[in-house]
């Protein structure tokens, strides 16, 4: 169901500590688990996001567990790479079920951990949150979504990366008003989707509004909207501007600068978060590996924030 | 004189409305016309800007007529793609004359419309404005230019993309003081051109000044300088930073971020504008299609602003 | 020891003045010298920074000696390209010694000039500053470093581009407290290096802090920390974000925007500066030549600031 | 079931005849139909082959219906672009069924035509041949496969682009001995697949053998092995060397040169062929559009050969 | 009329002799002149061929005047870079006239030399041959053309890179039967151009025919067709396959391999040749600089052959 | 001295056997050892060849131990990845000594094995052969070199990648007449190097000669020249044409096609070979990873040939 990572870093105990040396492959009680989902078959546009879990792992020799901006040493934080979900070669429905079961297993096996997931296309969020709900049926779940798109498409034609939020709301796993999407902009959501957002009560904070509010205030506002028990964060890297993140299936101009995303995640990461995923990074169409690196930077900014929170 | 677009989108009436479905190919009284000028022969540096009209059209399946940032539905706006100007294969002077005649025809044929033109290199602006003056000989014309360069070169050596403003001023079609150029920066205008700007009274608002003023204030200031009857806007995409727009013949660092350009156009677009052009986008040297997409985004931001203005 | 540039621009006296026409190849009393160091052999990661001096020279036909942002004409400023240091093909120690001797020669030969150096990897800074100290043994030297990294690695394993600051401090050429590094961010300095910075008293101003202070205030603060006789500025272009500068050996997201770097250099350049270097630009892995152009833009912004200062 | 092409070329009757002008959109009795299958969801490795039908159509302004090598004017040949198969967004099984039904429809509707199909990934071949068998249940079908891979993987884990030949043989639609694969080479077929080829009696002509036989002799030999009623040709562009065709999901060195592929298709095309497909071209990872162009060249070489055969 | 090269190599007398050291800038009686024509304004498709003369010059530090394949030391050969033709910024007709005058001047000034010209787009061939005819009005001129295209387009719509052969034949400067084009292939010449070739009696040797004849025999055959006084060779680099030469405006698959072009030029170069040009190399869309390098390699292969001929 | 590979593949025992599953990490008596030398500091031109050992390892999930061209199953062959040589960060002389010691250790530790080495730049060959001589002082060593260059430069200025053969010959480790270089072509060896080859008696078989002889005959001829006890093969991937191998520091047109290199290695590999290295592959400037893949293909072709030889 979950297989070991396809390659393991040789870890060094002397010399400067890199993420590759600090990551754990076997830890029963980590602060956080990292689960890979090498799956891009439900992406509307052609996507190599299935390559991202390993592309992410390959960045680990150029990152350290120390965050200079805030002078946070997160080497005490225990992050365990538990491997990748095993998937079906063509059956999307079955693959989604396998992710859901894998997530159930992780939640039970590591019940005190933060659950981080490395996608994969955005369709993975639906089974992951569904598993969280199954594990905590009485708890209400809120979603902080960072995305250029609403992902509220009708899924009668398939559970694609354009539908995860709609699925969760229609299946009553998450209430529409418990979803806050930060970052939409431009001309990438048809009017019918705007109407869907209004219909379900999903909160949309366009990028322009985020900028006029400021990042801290935006995050505070988003959390104030979420009167829930558990928070799930989903980061679609296509929220970034194409100049910063050309390596996504639907890259757009007019998006966030990467430092804005990092600031958002540093704010969000200082809160109680149950799970987070990073999706829609396509290493095959990246330029100078910049999107892969930005996603890794975003991930570790969030981890640094969690460490700061634990210290306080 | 004007030929139909070289390809036509198959338009769908069901499903989410995309720009490709919304664009009109036949409309006698559109809010705006869109005319392509596939011409790059007068560019000083080698340019594939002649490829842009079709590259622009090809983006239309990834844009919708809904602008999320300001929640503007511009699907009621009628934009008609009237095709491309037919040009001579090598005779620049004749080609410029053909553009001028085509523009004359468009102004007469669609006399209530906004005229939008998709270049092409910047040399096209001179014949387009000349046509506007011929159609409205008693009206004064002001130009808002967004550009890294002044385009005030002496044209004794040819009417290139470095000369359109100088042509218009010397021919007394537009007064120098009725030109406001927003965005110049860096080391890309020789001293002789600065002196030309001073001589003609052209207003230069360097990017640094724009940033210290703020975008709304910059636009208000620019319009306050223009006591004219008709406003022509010309957008040279090389005003953008090379990180956002590598696909121009003379890309430079230190330029505008694309969101600044979009904000400028959203402000400008809420005013009375007679015509606008977008020039110097070279799809052949683009990276990840980002410049083409940024120019399309800029274009539709302007259209959304026009819709907002019409609604108010 | 120093050889003429490997190619010389044909200089024009008519037409618009470009940098290529304005640069001097022979001037005994220039305002500034420009020395190339085509050396990348001490870079930890594979680097083509040895190609940068000539790549920089090749940009000179697209820059002019006029800075539009501040309307500064620096054509009166005399900048002399004195050529490149001759180096050994494999012996890093010998090559470093050759740079030191070349710098000694330049300081003596052009004793009234500003010394600008075009690297090369960051290891070159140590011999350059060492030469400056030898020439001015009684003077205290301060360093303004713009860098993502501290360059404080232990050099027992070689004097690489990760060690120049450590070398200078350990050799007591510069005091740790006389070094101010502006721009570090993210996850690119191991904890041991943070501890080294603290140990030596090197001042670190992370990018996030620079942004909250503002650029003018940051520069003022940096200079207030430096109670020294001579200021040496070292600009590692990897301080820029990978979206603006993919052409460096260790490009990272989360770095400076190029306009921030230009503003820093415009502030710094208005002060008394003895020498400056630009390092770690790798033209071989650049995208759309944007990093090379950004480094050239940064260089001339500094020169424009020097001209402004001379005028005042 | 089949939708019109998403864009239509504006066709010119004067000037030089290009493929775009010659292609037919409505013809009841064409010599050949062209059907697009924008489907890449069953590709084992990430693939943008779904983009190829339109990328192919976009090349039509740079090809003419005249083949210089053999001085063949194929403008009399009537080729009709009948559009694309409509597919499900995620359900691979349903999409495969939709292709099969579409192919059934085409065979019935255009019963005298050659059927050409533009993929898409290689999984499409199985439903297409299945349809052919359903339409001609008493006829034996032979397959000429040009491919680096055998496509004989076990499909218990999904009907991917690695399985079409295995599917057809196991379902007894085509006999193993009625399959000839020309072009395999190198290290890209595991031993278990070599054993499968032997087990099913599939004929493998490695590239090295093809080169020692010569192309005409190889084709003659291949046809001599096929004592069948109908011939189906399937061209996996990954049979080409990566230097000629980087734009495929699994590009390899050591493959065919493009002129060898063209010669093969010119030989094959002079025979009685019932249907042909071109698969696994991924425009998203192409370099200089060379793979897309090579596939188009291959396609029209085959058509030219058909014209030659019709003339004789 | 002719200006010095825009940059000059610093030449070394010690160390290994490179082309940059061996090239002459001032020689009254060179074996050959090299004239640059930085002109691409008459190219039908967008072209950066105007950048090639300098791109060619920049390769000179990686080539030596020794040809290993045939052990030919051509360092005794005197090749003089006489600079570039000065051109008009937009007037194609005037620019063509300026080339013609420049060529007249070169022929008179260096009357014993071989004339080599570095384009530029293919339109330059017409004025160059016209000058040759003017200088030698009683001599018959033959053309060996290496090209994918016939360049026999009707020039009523402009004297583009698609028309030079037609111009020369219609103006009776060269007879149609004195033109041999080696290398056309594929689908890149419309039927009307095939008819034009037949009408004018231009000899077409398609690539396929060249390969079946062999290169030596092809060259012998071509020369046997040319019963003329002077031979002009024109090399359109788009005769190469796109895998070898992506950096041309109309790159095609199915073309020559570069070693075939080199062999052709080595054969041709051993004959009496009056002039040669190399056209349609676009450095701006090259990949890994491979087209620029291939064109330089082709050029020096021809020079090596001339040296061999001189020695014999 | 030798460190484990920086990452280890997770190996699978079920499913299709890939190279990643078949490679051994611990085997005392392998048929062959594989040693990585991540070293590019002695390359004359900037090189990322230090990245190749790991880039090579990363290809192992797309290759199988079965060679289709000759139907050779080399899964019984035992290849052991023994890791990488530990090197000094800047001291080239020390690093070369470390390689020599590592090679000594390998020869002693695995005395029955073939020694394969993955570079690294070409300077590594000198210490590797020196170690071989030290281990077998009474044996004569012959070198088969596949290279565009002679590597006979004078090393008084450093032991670069341009000098290994000269070093070995001058140190009398290998006699000049015991070196056969297959593949030089074009303009990439100065006359002084041709003279050096003649002086030392090194055999040069230019590519053109290889092609006229045929590959089998060339190899037979090369071995007939080598009346030695041990054969060392060194493969500089820059022997390939730039169209096939853009990812080398000095890529040239006019080189070998990759299938020619593979055929050479298949012939050579069926002989008694003591050691082989593959050098000068620079993954950082590769296009579509084609050079890395070609080098891996070359490597496994050689291994397949060794297996064939062992079987016979
Ligand atoms: Ca999403
Ligand atoms: Ca999204
Ligand atoms: Ca302009
Ligand atoms: Ca401009
Ligand atoms: Ca540094
Ligand atoms: Ca740094
Ligand atoms: Ca296949
Ligand atoms: Ca295949
Ligand atoms: Ca031509
Ligand atoms: Ca041509
Ligand atoms: Ca070598
Ligand atoms: Ca070599």
UniProtKB/TrEMBL annotation, chains A, B, C, D, E, F:
Natural source organism: Caryophanon latum
InterPro entries tied to this protein: Ureohydrolase (IPR006035), Ureohydrolase_dom_sf (IPR023696)
PROSITE patterns named in the record: ARGINASE_2 (PS51409)
Keyword Transmembrane tagged: no
UniProt binding sites for Mn(2+): 122, 147, 149, 151, 236, 238
Protein name, UniProt field: Formimidoylglutamase
Stated family: Belongs to the arginase family.
Annotated keywords: Histidine metabolism, Hydrolase, Manganese, Metal-binding
Cofactor binding note from Swiss-Prot or TrEMBL: Binds 2 manganese ions per subunit.
CDD domains per record: Agmatinase-like
Presence of the UniProt keyword Hydrolase in the record: yes
Domain of life: Bacteria
Example of a GO MF term: agmatinase activity
Entry cofactors: Mn(2+)
One Gene Ontology term from the biological process aspect of the record: putrescine biosynthetic process from arginine, via agmatine
């Amino acid at each position: 169901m979950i297989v070991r990572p396809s390659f393991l870093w040789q870890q060094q105990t002397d010399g400067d500590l890199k993420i590759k040396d600090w990551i754990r492959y076997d830890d029963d009680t980590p602060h956080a688990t990292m689960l890979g989902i090498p799956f891009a078959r439900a992406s509307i546009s052609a996507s190599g996001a299935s390559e991202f879990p390993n592309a992410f792992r390959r960045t680990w020799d150029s990152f350290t567990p120390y965050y200079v901006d805030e002078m946070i040493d997160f080497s005490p934080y225990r992050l365990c790479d538990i491997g990748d979900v095993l998937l079906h070669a063509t059956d999307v429905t079955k693959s989604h079920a396998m992710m859901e079961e894998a997530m159930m297993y992780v939640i039970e096996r590591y019940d005190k951990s933060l659950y981080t997931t490395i996608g994969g296309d955005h369709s993975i969020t639906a089974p992951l949150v569904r598993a969280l709900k199954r594990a905590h049926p009485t708890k209400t779940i809120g979603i902080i979504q960072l995305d250029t798109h609403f992902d509220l498409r009708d899924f009668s034609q398939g559970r694609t990366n354009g539908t995860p939020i709609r699925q969760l709301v229609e299946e009553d796993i998450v209430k529409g008003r418990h979803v806050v999407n930060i970052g939409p902009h431009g001309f990438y959501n048809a009017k019918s989707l705007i109407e869907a957002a209004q219909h379900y009560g999903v909160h949309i904070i366009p990028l322009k509004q985020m900028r006029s509010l400021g990042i801290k205030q935006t995050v505070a506002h988003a959390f104030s909207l979420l009167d829930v028990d558990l928070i799930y964060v989903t980061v679609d890297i296509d929220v970034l501007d194409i100049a910063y993140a050309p390596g996504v299936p639907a890259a757009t101009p007019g998006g966030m600068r990467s430092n804005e995303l990092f600031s958002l995640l540093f704010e969000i990461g200082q809160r109680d978060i149950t799970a987070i995923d990073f999706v829609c990074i396509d290493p095959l169409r990246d330029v100078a590996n910049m999107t892969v690196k930005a996603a890794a930077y975003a991930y570790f900014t969030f981890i640094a924030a969690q460490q700061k929170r634990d210290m306080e």
